[in-house]
Specification:
Blueprint (H helix, E strand, L loop, with lengths): L1 H11 L3 H26 L5 H33 L3 H8 L2 H4 L2 H4 L1 H28 L2 H6 L6 H8 L8 H5 L4 H19 L21 H4 L9 E8 L7 E8 L21 E6 L7 E7 L5 E6 L11 E4 L2 H4 L10 H10 L10 H10 L5 H19 L1 H6 L1 H18 L31 E2 L14 E8 L16 H16 L1
Antiparallel strand pairs: 1-2, 2-8, 3-4, 3-6, 4-5, 5-7
Bound molecules: heme C (5 copies).
The site of one heme C has 17 residues, from strand 1, strand 2 and strand 8.
Length: 497
Amino acid sequence: MFRKYIRFIRGVAVNRVGMVGVVLTTSSFITSIILEIARLVGILTNARVGLITYLLFPALFVVGLALISVGWHLCREKTGKNTRELLEERFDAEQLKGGFFGSKLALTVGFFTLVNILFLSAASSRMLYFMDEPRFCGTACHSVMNPEWVTYQQSSHARVKCIDCHVGEGIGALIDSKLNGMWQIISITFDLLERPIPTPVHQLRPARETCEKCHWPNKFYGSRLQTIVRYGKDHESTPRYTTLNLKVDAGKGMEKGGIHWHTGEENLVRYSSVDDEREEMIWVEVIQPDGSFKRYTNKKLISSHNGHENKRILDCVDCHNRATHIFEDSHDAVDERIRLGLLDRSLSYLKREALAAVTAGYPDAEAAMEGIANHMHGFYRRRFPDVAIEKSAQIDKAVSVLQATYNRNIHHQLNLTWGTYPSHIGHKGDKGCFRCHNTDLVNENGASISGDCTLCHSILAFESDEAFEYLLPVDSTNRDFRMHQYLQQEFLEFLAD
Ligand code: HEC
Ligand code: HEC
Ligand code: HEC
Ligand code: HEC
Ligand code: HEC
């Protein structure tokens, strides 16, 4: 049996070219199978091995097959014989008996063709499946996707595949993404990639086809109570509390709702921005089911913008642009780790020094690791020698926590530093919600989109000593009596609604 196939293969390889073809086909077939077995057993786990198993070797396999037929063709040209004559020359009569199609040779050819088809379809379906795996997207292209991969693994979506947000469903989306992926491989190979990778991602599918496969817009969210703790730069790193009750829910149809009103099933908000970053609006429109239409135009921009426009229907990603790749703000990052007890607040001036250590400019990650350690140890040794000795374990822990914080957020090879990818949730300066909720955008009556402090959240504490300060009783001599009373009332009315 085995010898028969050897004989067949020898018969097929008519010349050098054919020989190379046979060797290539056979060896890439066998290597592919061995690599796949190694992967299944768990010996090989690297994402790039998949590229080799499912792409490189199957490609060599096809090249080998092509060489075999090129070999036949060359041989025919050279000897002037036709296929029939060549077959008779290369194989014994017994193999060819019964006419070509009924012969043993035909059976062997048929068998090999079947094996080829099975092998190639298995390899390509494995390839498609494998390329959809987050591990591939996140690690196959060297370090380019590392920042997104790191933040993704620590987010609520760590079990959601990259393609579920970046590609969506349907054959059109698939082809789109493979073409785009091809371009990415080219741009990485020739180092044409922009660093940092530009955001927003303009070819991201509409949220209807991605986010809304799992989160539906009219899901009831109610409101969400959130306490933000900020630590001071004083000796004790004193905590201050801001508590908001975020009015997340969409409401129903035409009724007044909360934050998710924008993407409620029946509402449509469109906007046009001057810049690709979608930060400076030219106009914002609202269309509602009763046919009502409103347009707010930027009174400062109208005459000066240069005609470049980016129109877009607002969706989830306009607010949740950091749904999964959450790069922290430097203050938030330090505050959060103190809150979680990872950084020990009993260390003198902890907040101030930790922040200084992670935000000093470093040329690369290695220098940063050293710089952070030197900064922290140096500070306590110089200023608080007793603390440096007594609490050396806490200082060591702080150093390693701050180093990890740095590595999560800062990626030198991509020019990614603090604040490169800001979040649109909230309103730092005139960003986030205030891109639209501001007084420059006005309708024909001169009215703007509300920026009322209690439109989006009740405020229950604002940089206070108490997490729920405005819910406590207040006496009328207090300087903030009016505001306190107003905010308390507003929240109670919201609850009663
Ligand atoms: C929950 C949905 C979701 C998942 C899962 C997801 N992404 Fe993203 N990704 C986004 C959004 C949203 C943006 C920002 C788009 C914007 O601002 O327009 C983004 C942006 C990016 C960017 C551009 C740079 C940036 O940070 O803005 C890269 C690169 C990226 N993602 C890679 C990945 C990789 C690799 C994976 C899988 C390991 C992945 N993403 C998984 C939603 C997702
Ligand atoms: C494949 C399903 C899936 C897709 C697609 C998906 N999500 Fe999620 N999302 C989840 C799950 C599951 C959770 C809850 C995780 C948990 O509670 O631990 C979640 C949580 C969230 C949260 C709360 C996060 C937090 O940290 O509390 C937000 C916001 C969110 N998703 C937005 C989005 C946006 C925006 C998109 C589209 C870019 C999206 N999701 C796409 C499944 C998905
Ligand atoms: C106008 C801005 C905006 C839009 C548009 C928006 N969200 Fe949100 N969403 C918020 C804010 C603000 C919160 C409050 C929680 C927070 O601060 O993270 C929130 C909360 C959430 C949560 C968490 C709720 C909880 O209780 O933990 C999920 C999940 C979510 N959004 C998904 C979506 C999805 C899916 C879409 C698109 C259909 C969407 N959001 C559209 C602003 C928005
Ligand atoms: C692209 C522009 C745009 C952005 C960005 C935006 N909004 Fe809005 N928002 C609007 C418009 C337009 C309205 C409706 C104004 C009107 O009805 O006249 C609105 C209305 C609202 C309302 C009132 C809903 C109701 O039922 O009346 C809330 C609450 C709200 N937005 C919260 C937010 C929050 C929170 C953010 C940031 C996370 C945000 N918005 C970001 C355009 C925007
Ligand atoms: C269009 C909606 C909207 C309006 C109007 C609005 N806010 Fe906010 N605000 C938000 C959202 C969303 C967050 C972010 C919550 C989060 O971090 O998840 C936020 C966060 C905050 C924070 C916490 C900031 C931090 O990180 O420490 C404060 C304080 C605050 N708002 C005060 C105000 C005040 C004061 C006003 C009135 C001038 C106001 N807000 C108007 C939506 C709004």
